[in-house]
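dude i think i finally got it to work??
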Amino acid sequence: MKITEREVTYVAQLGNLELTEDETRRMAVDLNDILSHIDKLNELDTAGVEPMRQVVYGGGEALELRADEPRPVLGAEEALANAPLAGSGHFKVPRVIER
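look at this
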């Protein structure tokens, strides 16, 4: 499957991204390289490979997580104490969406 520049532009618009023509061209090339690599991986015979249960945990067969315990709720003043800009009990952030 080949990704076209038109498809890159469409997806960028969905993500509210503004890409230059050069960025669009480069992104199409990069995405096509990624898809080519995935096609190569799909050629591998994995019929005898057992599925992995937990990839990131190195604790052996049994996955043991800590028990959930209730904790006191963080108050608004405490939560906003280190905020760069706060007001009326809320975090204030710059506008990022113009539409």
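The mean pLDDT is 88.
im so relieved honestly
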